[in-house]
Amino acid sequence: MVSTGWALPRVVVAAPASGHGKTTVATGLLGALRRRGLTVSPHKVGPDYIDPGYHGLAAGRPGRNLDPWLVGPERVAPLLRHGASVPTPADVAVIEGVMGLHDGAVGRRGYASTAHVATLVDAPVLLVLDTTAQGRSAAALVLGMRAFDERVRVGGVILNRVGSPRHETLLRDALAEVGVPVLGAVSRSAEVAAPSRHLGLVPVAERAPESLAVVAALADLVAATVDLDAVLDLARSAPPLTAPAWDPLAAVGGPVSTAAGGGPAGVTAGGGPARTGGPTVAVAAGAAFTFSYAETAELLAAAGATVAPFDPLRDPGLPAGTRAVVIGGGFPEAHADALAGNAALRAELAAFDGPVVAECAGLLYLGRSLDGAPMCGRLDLTARMTGRLTLGYREAVAAADSPVTRAGERVRGHEFHRTVTDPGHGDTPAWRFDGAAHGFVDGRVHASYLHVHWAGQPHAARRLVQACR
């Protein structure tokens, strides 16, 4: 583990509430700074999968999440240092917040909030402020945000949706009164929007050409409206990052010895797992299954697996030699017909007798049908879209042994979906939380709606590779 201090410039992009323009500014900053020739490390507070996709496109390296609830507060700074080091050391890290600056896990007094993460990584905050229908009161709002928690340093403001030059002058003068510098101003007419869906933005993988255009437009916008030198000065005011870098090899305790070979798969120059002689773990990817944390593949590789992505929309079969399968989240409901049309892969997954781990979208895909379209039939359930959004952090207890859990273990995860399954859980459920059973353990299959970040549960990766024996 690296343990010496690293003077990593870093800044947290936050807001008083959702909808103020954090993603616009953070993504634009990443793209604009990269155009300057800087190596930029992108990060996102919270469990969200979609924003990091845009961040990664803008920065040219994977977007990574920093979530104290999912991984534990002690791992947040090490994960930042790891992400900013792979595949090469970054010149600056940009961390987009979640919701409002002080909004975190319900009833936990700001735990897992953007403010909490800002203190854990000792980074200054750049506050994005929607100024629609606001004048001098904007300064009072910023003053309150700054004073609410004295450990959080609000180092500057970017004014968003400014109505006119006169409006901008009024806002700048008011913020000067409270001693908070304005580092940029974006007019209402200059806004750039990315298409949205019921769970947020449309993932990058589903609209690659359009996503490139949106990210380029955001970089143009920020370069034209934000004082990038002032933002860099703010980021450089962060003290050295003294936390040791998170190490996937140390987290899993080294490679597992298996019949198919036990050498560690390692990591390529691009940050992905290298292909070696370890057991092949197939990981669903493509437009329908975009929800995955970068550390999942790193942990599997460190445990000795060869990680092989496959696209259930296009690939007629699992990668050669597959010993285990991981199917994460995404939007299968938007691709149900195309998934149904790949009958050969559905049949192979239905008959696959190795360990399978599925989260949310993966759960739906393993069922008999989704909104009437045939799926794999590996699990005896049907699924359908509803108008109700189920979301939030969960504290769960494993209800049974499985390829990745042991009965009685406690984990922290999150749910985020608008679908339901019938039945809601199997005879042997995967989890128990909120006084109810959830998910399915069926033979060597573990499937549920719960998303878990494996950096907080590294034994899951090790166990899955062990289950390949």
From TrEMBL:
Residues 11-199 form the CobQ/CobB/MinD/ParA nucleotide binding domain. Its EC number is 6.3.5.9. The gene is cobB. Keywords: ATP-binding, Cobalamin biosynthesis, Glutamine amidotransferase, Ligase, Magnesium, Nucleotide-binding. The active site is at C360. The record marks H451 as: Increases nucleophilicity of active site Cys. NCBIfam families: PRK01077.1. One of its GO terms (biological process) is cobalamin biosynthetic process. Pathway: Cofactor biosynthesis; adenosylcobalamin biosynthesis; cob(II)yrinate a,c-diamide from precorrin-2 (aerobic route): step 9/10. The lineage of its organism: Bacteria, Bacillati, Actinomycetota, Actinomycetes, Micromonosporales. Comprises of two domains. The C-terminal domain contains the binding site for glutamine and catalyzes the hydrolysis of this substrate to glutamate and ammonia. The N-terminal domain is anticipated to bind ATP and hydrogenobyrinate and catalyzes the ultimate synthesis of the diamide product. The ammonia produced via the glutaminase domain is probably translocated to the adjacent domain via a molecular tunnel, where it reacts with an activated intermediate. Residues 280-456 form the CobB/CobQ-like glutamine amidotransferase domain. GO terms for molecular function: ATP binding; cobyrinic acid a,c-diamide synthase activity; hydrogenobyrinic acid a,c-diamide synthase (glutamine-hydrolysing) activity. It is an enzyme of class 6 (ligase). The keyword DNA-binding does not apply. It catalyses: hydrogenobyrinate + 2 L-glutamine + 2 ATP + 2 H2O = hydrogenobyrinate a,c-diamide + 2 L-glutamate + 2 ADP + 2 phosphate + 2 H(+). The a and c carboxylates of hydrogenobyrinate are activated for nucleophilic attack via formation of a phosphorylated intermediate by ATP. CobB catalyzes first the amidation of the c-carboxylate, and then that of the a-carboxylate. CDD domains: CobB_N (cd05388). Catalyzes the ATP-dependent amidation of the two carboxylate groups at positions a and c of hydrogenobyrinate, using either L-glutamine or ammonia as the nitrogen source. It holds the Pfam family CbiA. This is Hydrogenobyrinate a,c-diamide synthase. It comes from Micromonospora carbonacea. Belongs to the CobB/CbiA family. The keyword NADP does not apply.
